[in-house]
Amino acid sequence: MITFNIAQWRAWAPGLASVEHWQQWCQQPTHLHSSDEAPDVSFLPAMQRRRLGRLARMAFAVGWPLAEGYERLPLVFVSRHGETPRTFEILCDVANSEPLSPTQFSLSVHNAVIGLWSILRGETSEMTALAADGDGLEHGVFEAAALLAEGAPAVLLIITEEQPPQAYSQWIDDVPFPYAVGLLLTAGTDWSLSLTTADDSKELPPSQWPNALSLLRTLNSAQGACRHSWKRRVWNWQRSL
Q1: What is the pLDDT of residues 4-59, one digit of tens each?
Q2: DSSP secondary structure, 113-180, as one string
Q3: 3-state DSSP call for residue 45?
Q4: Which of 208, 156, 237 is nearest to 31 (CA)?
């Protein structure tokens, strides 16, 4: 079991940019209509903004305000699928024997976001990019807790997923809409997280919403606990009351 505090949070999805909008969604969660909307990242230089895909823009939109006031802030970036629209374009170019764009390729790799974050913020703290399973949120929290245990005053955790191209619809079914959730974690005992396993060999049904969005609903309610399951893993979140 690990313990920690969630000092602040931010989230973004099409049509859900403010804390108030998210609080309303948490009370009555619904699937969002498909949209090309991207978050406002006007705080970044124009030339850099043009290079960013929506996944990176979402990560910057939720992470930037949480990092304010910190000179050194370790970052844990989590995405199960990564830049699927960008990688799909690259694969299409390969299939059509078109020349590949070095810029497209460099920005498609899984740790591109943390590299851009380091450059644009001048941040040299430890950073980790995880491509975990459907419970990447919890793996990211464990990584962040390890950094807190090593003395980091706070750790920024960003979980984000992009809507995959239609060609992937048979295989990717865990992204109800594009979203990003940012958590600023600090040392403390407000929250505890533990892992158990299912008693039998059958996989448990996944949560109705991605784990990061389910946690967001708990944060914006009076609930003191929530459980997230993935395959045979059961993650138990407990809030000190």
Answers
A1: 999 999 999 999 999 999 999 999 999 998 788 999 999 998 888 888 889 999 99
A2: HHHHHHHHHT--S-EEEE---TTHHHHHHHHHHHHHHTT-S-EEEEEEEPPPPGGGTTT--S-SS-EE
A3: coil
A4: 208
What tokens does 123 get?
């941040």
Number of structural domains the chain divides into? 1
The answer to whether residues 163 and 178 touch, using CB atoms and an 8 Å cutoff, is yes
Q: Is 34 helix (H, G, I), strand (E, B) or coil?
A: coil
Phi, psi of 183 (to 5 degrees): -125, 130
Contact at 8 Å (CB) between 90 and 100? yes
User: pLDDT tens digit string along 191-216?
Assistant: 999 998 877 656 667 778 999 999 99
Q: What is the pTM of this model?
A: 0.92
pLDDT tens for 86-103 read: 888 878 878 888 887 777
β-partners of residue 157 are 76, 183
What residue numbers bound the domain in which 145 lies? 2-239
CATH assignment of the domain containing 80: 3.40.47.10
